[in-house]
Write a structure and sequence with these properties.
alpha+beta; Immunoglobulin-like; Rossmann fold; six-stranded mixed beta sheet; 15 helices; 26 strands; about 30% helix
Length: about 600
């Protein structure tokens, strides 16, 4: 006997405020299952002619057939391609995050010019999630839905630990992994942790298996890509000097390096000839160092970006802990800017921990002191100190720009992990569109202020780089949909209601149906050529009890409604139906709808248990 269970969704608690942030789209393309076409139906049941028009498109008149259509193919949306997103954390004099501010309380400056904040959201981390907000539904023996059943256990928080084993030395890495092990042991049962490394040699995806995470930590070891520092030679330049020489053409750095090369490799020549002979060596050495060290920085940023994208697919609170001694990023501004943009738009907080602890800048290496040029020893030491300080800049920028904490100059790594793994209780996301933005790749400084009350500390990104070419609107629209899909936040910016049903055809087989009912009276329809136009992208997805995506289906609904048809549809609306073949178990249902005309995204959740 086939059991039919239906559940009409009750209003669940909203997580926070409307979310507008776009994000990456590559995973959405992989995950969305291109299966059955959309079958919009009227709810409640319309007259037979309307039923035919909505579901099958077979109506007596060809003009009516074109009024409502659906398809699975990708759609180009009109999006604001110049939107700049800034995450802001505001703290009081005691260091506590402030959560009662509004859009009008903020001031935002781009290159010292005031900007109009066009989009705004306030967020509170980790307080409400759908697993507790939406009662799960199952059935009793009579087939009647039972309320108050314990909902499926959806993890509340995801923490990824990314160790920069490309740059870390053995001593610092050993201390950091021990502190990380203690921190992982203190996580809550609802937390899920993952361990990654910039070398890619160590990786454990999100799990609650503490033993597996412990074993992964033990496998961490330094894995540098470049071995230039292993070469014991008289003449060397560090990454900081190489950048000054090649990229900035700094005359002092060039002079110091040239004198050192002449002293080490051409001391048998007269001074003038030695300096002339040293110049090609300085250039080639600086280029070699830039290429080798730059590759290590590039790898670290690439893995960091991939970790952010991986976390963007996880529901709930997301924290990424980046453990590194820091590194330089000359000519890599767009790469770490891309990391920041993805993190902000994906609601991933990056906390950074300087694994060097209480760090004392180095002096002259004793192993080279006998052969180093005494005339330049003082200046070379300053370059070593400058590199040590500059290496931590990237850690500070990543944390400040994403709302995370930056921990440095302390050997209390236990406290460090506690701080950087946590997220501020309150944060704000501001969006603005720079006017007449030139696509020249230039840096734009940002400053965010709070009008009142005074003495508040503001943490926000320092700036952004203008794009070098125009963005693809369709690509950004897909990214926006994906980001909403993998969030657990409920957004009620569109008149959409989520309903779910499941039908059991056997002991181990069931069909889960997701219904998206759209109240077209409240849509932003565009009138053109006597028609009322709009296009909706509807994405339905189901996640398992561990928060992993099981299946997702995307549908596109296009409307070109005549006035009389719109009038008929006013009361009934339109229902988009999506079906999934599932096994018994607990699922989180996620519905995301995007309106092309209004450029708004709505998102709703439902939790359901199939016995």
């Amino acid at each position: 006997m086939r059991t039919v269970i239906s559940s009409t969704r009750k209003d669940s608690r909203r997580l926070l405020y409307p979310r507008f942030l776009p994000g990456c789209c590559w995973l959405l393309i992989l995950c969305l299952n291109q299966t059955s076409a959309a079958q919009p139906q009227a709810a409640p049941q319309p007259a037979p002619a309307e039923q035919s028009s909505a579901s099958s498109g077979q109506t007596p008149g060809a003009a009516t057939t074109a009024e409502i259509s659906s398809r699975d193919e990708a759609t180009t949306f009109k999006v604001n391609v110049n939107l700049v997103v800034v995450r802001v954390v505001v703290r009081d004099s005691k260091g506590q995050a402030v959560g009662n501010l509004h859009k009008d309380d903020f001031q935002l400056f781009d290159n010292r010019k005031p900007q109009v904040i066009t989009q705004f959201s306030a967020e509170r981390a980790g307080k409400e999630i759908p697993s507790t907000a939406v009662p799960a539904r199952t059935s009793n023996e009579s087939g009647v839905p039972a309320e108050g059943v314990v909902p499926p256990a959806v993890p509340e928080r995801y923490i990824a630990y990314l160790f920069d084993d490309v740059h870390l030395n053995f001593a610092d890495l050993a201390l950091a992994r021990k502190a990380a092990d203690r921190h992982i042991a203190s996580l809550r049962p609802t937390d899920r942790a993952a361990i990654y490394s910039t070398s890619g040699q160590t990786e454990v995806d999100f799990t609650d298996d503490r033993a597996q995470l412990h074993q992964a930590l033990l496998k961490l070891q330094p894995r540098p890509i470049s071995h230039l520092n292993d070469i014991n030679q008289c003449f060397t330049v560090n990454y900081y000097m190489a950048d000054l020489i090649e990229n900035q053409r700094d005359p002092q750095a060039i002079a110091v390096a040239t004198q050192d090369a002449a002293f080490c490799d051409f001391s048998n020549l007269p001074a003038a000839q030695a300096l002339a002979a040293a110049q090609p060596l300085v250039e080639s050495t600086a280029m070699q160092v830039l290429e080798a060290e730059g590759q290590e920085s590039h790898v670290a940023l690439t893995v960091l970006r991939d970790a952010v994208r991986r976390m963007a697919t996880m529901p709930g609170q997301r924290s990424l802990v980046f453990v590194s001694p820091g590194f330089l990023t000359p000519q890599l501004e767009f790469e770490y800017g891309d990391v920041i943009d993805h993190a902000v738009r994906s609601q991933v907080t990056i906390g950074t921990l300087d694994a060097r602890g209480l760090y004392v800048p180095p002096g002259i290496d004793a192993s080279n002191s006998g052969s180093a040029n005494p005339l330049t020893a003082g200046q070379r030491q300053m370059y070593e100190i400058d590199q040590a300080h500059a290496s931590s800049d990237i850690l500070s920028v990543l944390a400040d720009s994403t709302g995370g904490a930056f921990f440095q100059n302390s050997n209390d790594l236990d406290e460090g992990f506690r701080r950087v793994a946590s997220t501020p209780e309150y944060s704000y996301v501001l969006g603005f569109s720079p006017q007449n933005l030139k696509l020249d790749g230039s840096f734009h400084s940002l400053k965010v202020g709070v009008k009142s009350p005074p003495k508040l500390q503001v943490q926000a990104r320092r700036g952004y780089f203008a794009p070098k070419h125009a963005a693809d609107p369709a690509q950004q629209a897909k990214e926006e949909i994906e980001e909403a899909l993998f969030s657990q936040e409920e957004v009620r910016t569109l008149p959409v209601d989520l309903h779910t049903q499941f039908f059991k055809s056997g002991e181990f087989d069931a069909k889960l149906t997701v219904l998206a009912h759209i109240d077209i009276r409240r849509l932003h329809l565009r009138k053109a050529d006597g028609r009322n136009n709009d296009e909706l992208t509807v994405v339905s997805a189901i996640f398992n009890g561990s928060g992993n995506l099981v299946q997702g289906i995307q549908k596109t609904l296009t409307m070109h409604l005549k006035d009389e048809t719109l009038e008929k549809r006013m009361d009934s609306g339109i229902t988009m139906k999506t079906s999934f073949d599932v096994k018994p178990g607990s699922y989180l249902v996620r519905l995301v709808v995007r309106d092309a005309e209004a450029q708004l995204v709505a998102a709703e959740n439902d939790a359901i248990r199939i016995p």
